[in-house]
Give the backbone structure.
Amino acid sequence: MKRRIDQSDQKITSGRRLQQTVKRPKDVGMQGRSQWWVWTWTKVGLLSLCVLSVTILYLQQLFTVSDDLSRPSDFGLNHTINIYLNSEEGVRVGVWYTVPEHRWKEAQEKDQEWYEKVLGDGSPIFIYLHGNTGNRSAPHRIGIANVLSAIGYHVLALDYRGFGDSTSEPTELGLTTDTIYLYNWVKARSGNSLVCVWGHSLGSGVATNTAVKLQEKGKYFDGIILEGAFRNGQVAVEHPFTWFYWKFPYIQYYLFNPLKDNILNLPNDDNLKKIRTPLMLLHAEDDHIVPFYMAQELYNIAKNAQNSDERVKLVPFNGSLGYLHNGLYKDPHLPSIIREFVQSLSLTA
């Protein structure tokens, strides 16, 4: 009896082991299929998100009345004139030219001739180069223009070709050509005034590209300010998921890239190895598009290239302030930071 029970137990135990052995391949298969479904639905979800974003942008363009950029006063800029320049044959670019705030009363109802004349009044001049979406009317861009004007500087905010109401299509060479043309236009009217450039995000790459091209011809900006500057890379123009390409550069192999023909290579790191102009980098530590470590890397590159701690500065903005990528114009200390930098240029000029 005892032996039969033992044998029965052995059969039951063996049966359980056999059942477990039989189930394992099925479990493995289920797990593999589960992982496959997760990955598939992740790709489908991302693709749907991209399609939705493009649809929203299309509908916005379809049902939204375009801004009239020829009237900067409609955007609260009452001491600003809109001008158009032909940077090369067949290309017309729009520019907002804002005079120093202390001249706002004098500027009322004045024409372009007056604005061009006062450009040589001795006040520092900034050429402002914006990022890769929208146009010169974006609130944070107007914010920078107001800050610079309040300090007492002239500001010329450029919409590159293909942006805003500027004609043609954006290319790396084209953006640089537009900026060089504006620089020469300003220099022809500015007398002995300091001429600086402020490049934000994509504009930082355009600024350093332009600085290198000018330097090759023996011309220089008196100072360069880079805000939210990336180290290098390919920047997709006018793409709602630019930040996604920064974070996951290989995603383009899994999702369509509708802007593959508008990819710009803007090597700030290589350019800063060549530039010999005083430089200030402004960067928010919580920048969600261009990580702060890129600013640190650019600072080290520029400092080593110019072999100076005085000519190259990095100004970080604490992440707790919540400025992210576009909000530095809100900082109450920004005017004094800019003023100090520009004053240092006067001493070295």
Residues 99 and 169 are 29 Å apart (CA to CA). The two ends are 109 Å apart (CA to CA). The first strand starts at residue 80 and ends at 88.
